[in-house]
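User: Sequence in, structure out. Go.
Assistant: Echoing your sequence, followed by the structure tokens.
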Amino acid sequence: MTSATRLVYLFYLMAFTLLFPGSLCGQGGFAEMVDRAFGSNQELVNGIQFTNQYIRSEGHPYWIDGGFKTGSVCINDQWFEQLQLRYNLFSQKLELGYLTPEGHMNQIITVPENISAFFLGGYMFRRVQIVEEESAYYQVVSAGATTSYIRWSRDLLGTRSSGTSFGPIEREYWIHQGEQWLHFKNQKSYVRAFPKEQKRASKNLLKQQNFYFWRATTREMVEMLLASIRLLEEGGEP
């Protein structure tokens, strides 16, 4: 059984146990119980059958190019690997593509509260609560005792009557060092977030890297955040 199949069965098992406690034994095969419990709709307590809600909208709501990528998720401290995943930045939910035992491709929309972390495209994401923000998924970049968090999002613009389209990807950043939190979105707020004695160094770092938040690739962004972490930990000029 593949990791994806085991993961789907875990979703079913958790949902079935919550809906029908004490009835898991003596009821025939597990697949039969799942079918009796959910039927063809297969709505889950911690996942729901995928439907394309944005078919009339221009663009897509997903991280990077919108296609499924191989990744892994953590549920109840257990990692499931080699899964087909995509991250919806508008709904802030992770979608899972999997093959049923009959060989059919299916998709479910997972519930964020049940997935504490995932790897996608070689990058780590964790569900955490930052300062006064609600719990959400953040890309995590760490070095030493300092951690940076990146919140990805995408808005749906327009109205049903005039037509809707997905806007550009937006990113928001936090750096956590000890009791200190730095929060920024762009060039100005980046420099403003640094302590007074390091503002000049932060400006120089942006110039040296020729870095602009609005056009940076994911790799460039990660490299910049690591350089920022080094600046905070070492102090002085970059």
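User: And one key feature?
Assistant: Residues 1-120 form one domain.
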